[in-house]
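We close this part of the discussion by returning to an individual protein. The sequence in question and its structure tokens are set out directly beneath this paragraph:
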Amino acid sequence: MADQPDGKTPQNGNPRADIPDPEVRVPAKRRRLTAAYKLRILEEVDRCTQPGEIGALLRREGLYSSSLSNWRRQRAAGTLGNIKRGKKADPLAAENKRLQRENERLKRELEKAKLIMDAQKKIAKLLEFEIVEHDDEP
């Protein structure tokens, strides 16, 4: 039994294994549900009185019961629409960055002060002034 001209085997009608599937599948995108949508669903759930109504609502909307639990908890805490994704801001990172900038600024100022002192020493030497250097330590 030979292959059919259309590339299918006569036994089971499945495509031959050596022919790749030309269909390119688009990866699923994560849904972003707004706070208004979540509140609307919670209000609908609150109006459900008959057994099975909540399950039907969840199936219709493509939601899980754990989402309802999370949304109820957030609604009670008043944080339903205030969830931020991503890394939490490190409180020490901002202070560290500020101190690094200040350190760089102070280094630049110190370098300028050293250049000025060197210039003053050279001018004093040219004018034959005697410069007495003092140590800050007693």
